[in-house]
Amino acid sequence: MVDTMALLHAFTRASRVREKTTGVTSPVPVALPADDEVLLDAPDGLLGPALVGAAGGDHAPVAELLAVTRRTGAWEHRDRYVRRLAAFARSRPEWLDAWRARDPRDPDGLLVDAQRAVDRAWDSPARAELLREVSPLITAAARADNRDPVPWRLALDHARGARAGHTYVEELWEAAVRRAPHHHGCHVAALRYLASSWHGSHRECLTFADLAAQDAPEDSLTRSLPLRAAFGYLTDRCGSEVPRARLEAAADRAVDLSARLPAGQPWPAELRNLLTYVLVRLDRRRDALEQLRLTGPYATSFPWDRDADDPLGRFLEVRRSVRAAVVSGRPRPGSRSPAPALDRPGNERGGRLRLGDH
Predict the structure, then answer these.
(1) Which residues of 247-274 are buried (b: 16+ CB within 10 A; e: fewer)?
(2) What is the DSSP letter of 339?
């Protein structure tokens, strides 16, 4: 049994408490893109051309894009691009295989290949065993550029899937935050590990997320980490109750962050889709409508794939329901939230905590 307080202490740093802020919702009715204009998991203007090149068998645009993120320290974008490129390479591997054969020590090719290998192993019933075989590739990616925190995010994901002990994970975490103290991807990976280790201990996970968010810069995606923890609580069915005020505070912090990010752009879309999901669960449909306005035509698979095999269809269904409820001033008759009502069994022990994809 993991000592939750010792592990929490190892994963947190002294943080300066900041005042909670809330966003301002827009008046209704709100003009939203038509259903047929909404895109699922759309790449941004930099990733799109790289994917087109890869589809044609040319890895050069991908290599150039990732090299820029590494040179400029754009770690959040790098992390997001690596995930998307690795997913693409699973169905269209030729460009990545050719890149790896041509330059096996390239830090960017190594990282995408390591992400692909972890993704493959994760989907196997023999996950833990296969993940152990992937370790040398992750180590090579980490050594290829000592500044890059993304291999350490991948190492944290790998450790969770391989059921590594918390002492080893603490070492990975310390290495990750030395490179980028507020890297969102590493914090999400750590939160998922803690959630897996402390199944049902949502208050402790929220404490970790709150401290990380308080310590992060105002425009850092890590400011939204409590939203992830709140989502974990709202979609789980075990553990003690979390006061609603803590869930509201997590949503408010994410609303504030969303207001600082550009509207109608692909890269903040996952934050806003997740925030919409949580706001609807909290019955804050007017705030949810504002997030849908800011999101524009960009839907993301996460978190809607939790409730449906068709995440785009689920997003559109929720969007229609939210807008109708706000316009009418009351919940739409017969409509359903993205997940069951906020009340939940406090002592039920069903299922595993799921915080989206691994």
Answers:
(1) bbbbbbbbbbbbeebeeebbbbbbbbbb
(2) S
Query: What is the per-residue pLDDT across 116-125, written as a single tens digit (0 to 9) for each?
Result: 999 999 999 9
**Domain range list for the chain:** 45-198, 199-339
Cis peptide before 297 (omega within 30 of 0): no
Which of 268, 252, 256, 308 is CA-nearest to residue 77? 268
For the chain (length 358 residues), average pLDDT per consecutive 10? 54 41 52 96 97 98 98 98 98 98 98 98 92 96 97 97 93 97 98 89 95 96 98 90 96 98 97 98 97 98 95 98 90 44 36 34
3-state DSSP helix/strand/coil % of the chain, to nearest 5: 65, 0, 35
Q: Which of 354, 64, 316, 73 is nearest to 237 (CA)?
A: 354
Query: How many Cβ atoms are within 10 Å of 191's Cβ, its own excluded?
Result: 23
Q: What is the mean pLDDT of the chain?
A: 88
Strands (E), the chain: 39-40, 298-299
pLDDT digits (tens, 9 = 90+) for 125-149: 999 999 999 999 999 999 999 999 9
